[in-house]
Amino acid sequence: MSVQLVMTQVLNGLGLGMIYFLLAAGLTIIFGLMRFVNFAHGAFYAVAAYCSYAVTAAGGNLGWALLLGPLLTAVLAVVTERLLLRHTYKLQHEAQILITFALTLLIQELVIVVFGPMEMNVPVPAALSGIVFIGPVIYPVYRIAIVLIAVLIAVLMWLFLERTRFGAVVRAGSENQEMVALLGLNVDRIFMAAFALGAALAGLAGVLVAPLRGVSPGMGDEALGIAFVVVVLGGMGTLTGALIGGLIIGLVQSLMGILWPGGAQLMIYATMALVLLVRPAGLMGRE
Q1: Which phi and psi angles does 138 have, rounded to 5°?
Q2: How far is CA 39 from the centre of its chain?
Q3: Residue span of the structural domain in which 29 resides
Q4: CA–CA separation, 98 vs 20, rounded Å?
Q5: How many distinct structural domains can be found in the chain?
Q6: 208 membership: H or E segment, kind and range
Q7: Do the domain assignments include residue 120?
Q8: DSSP state, residue 132
Q9: Average pLDDT, the chain
Q10: Calpha distance 141→149 (Å, rounded)
Q11: Whole-angstrom Cα distance, residue 46 to residue 40?
C-alpha cells in the first residue's frame, strides 16, 4: 500500500467527514432542541440532491443549486412541520419514527414519479473540475471546495449558535425545554425555525455530494443511517460532537475502502459501538 494512496484516502475521508458533519449538524439541532426523532432527514438530503440535478440539467450551475437546494428543503420542512409534525411532538418517539418514516416513503415515491427510478449523474462545475498537487497527491479541486464550504458553514454555525439570541435559545432549549417556554418565548416558532435550519443543512450536504455520487431515489436511506451514527458517536445535541463524529466516520469509511472494501460499512457501526462501550453518552455528550 503506497503512502500516496493512504494520503489520498485520508483527504477523501476529510471531505466525506465534512459532508457527514453537515448532515449530522441538522439532525443534532432538531433532536437537541426539540427531542424529536426525524427519520425524514435523509429525504430532505435527497430532495436537495435532485434539485442540483434539475438545476444543472436545465443549464444552470451548481452555485444556483447551492442556494436553491437548501432553500427548497427549508420550505419543505416548514410546510411538513406546520401541517403534520408539530402535532407529533408530545407523542412517543416510536410514533415520531413511524410518521417521519412514512413521510420519507412519500417523498421518495414523489421523486421517482418526477425523475424516474434510475440513478443519474450531476456534473462537477467547470470552474472546479481541475486538480491540484498536495505534496505527492493529485487531488480534485471540487473535493477541496467541499471541505472549504463545510468549514465555512461550521464557523458560521458556531457564531450563530454562540453569538445570537436565537442560538442562545437553541442552546437553552437543548438543556431545558420548559425553561424556554417559561421565558415567554414562542416555542412553536422556535421549533419551526430549528426544523427548517436542520433541513437546510441536510439540503446543503445533498447538493455538495451530488456531483461525487450522483443521485438516486434511495440515497437518503444511507445518509440517514450515517447521520444517526455520527450524532450518537459525537454525542446528542452537540455541534462539536457532530463535527468530530463526522470526521471520524468519514476517515474510517475512506480508509477501510482500501483495507477491507467489503467491510467499510460494517466498520462504521463497529466504530460507533466501540465508542459507546467507553463513553455511552458519545464523545462530547453529557450523561
Answers
A1: -95, 120
A2: 12
A3: 3-278
A4: 24
A5: 1
A6: helix 187-213
A7: yes
A8: E
A9: 87
A10: 12
A11: 10
Identify whether 114 is part of a domain.
yes
Task: Assess contact for 53 and 115: CB atoms under 8 A.
Answer: yes
| Rounded Cα–Cα distance for residues 282 and 133 (Å) | 36
Residue 93 lies in a domain: yes
> Using CB atoms within 10 A of its CB, is residue 104 exposed (0-12), middle (13-18) or buried (19+)?
buried
List, for residues 183-206, the tens digit of each pLDDT value.
666 777 888 888 999 999 999 999
Q: Please report where in the chains the cell 412517543 appears, as a residue.
A: 92
What's the CA gap between 137 and 247, in Å, rounded? 20
Find out whether 18 and 205 touch, Cβ atoms under 8 Å: no
Task: Kindly state whether residue 284 falls inside one of the protein's structural domains.
Answer: no
Using an 8 Å Cβ cutoff, are 42 and 220 in contact?
Answer: yes
Q: What is the DSSP string of 84-96?
A: TGGGGTTS-HHHH
Q: pTM higher than 0.85, yes or no?
A: yes
User: What is the SS3 assignment for 10?
Assistant: helix
Q: Which residue has the higher pLDDT, 33 or 70?
A: 70
In this predicted structure, the answer to whether residue 43 has a pLDDT above a threshold of 70 is: yes
The pLDDT tens digits for 221-264 are: 989 999 999 998 988 778 888 999 999 999 999 998 888 878 88
Q: Report pLDDT for 191.
A: 82
* Angle between helical axes of 62-83 and 41-57 (0-180°, round to 10): 140
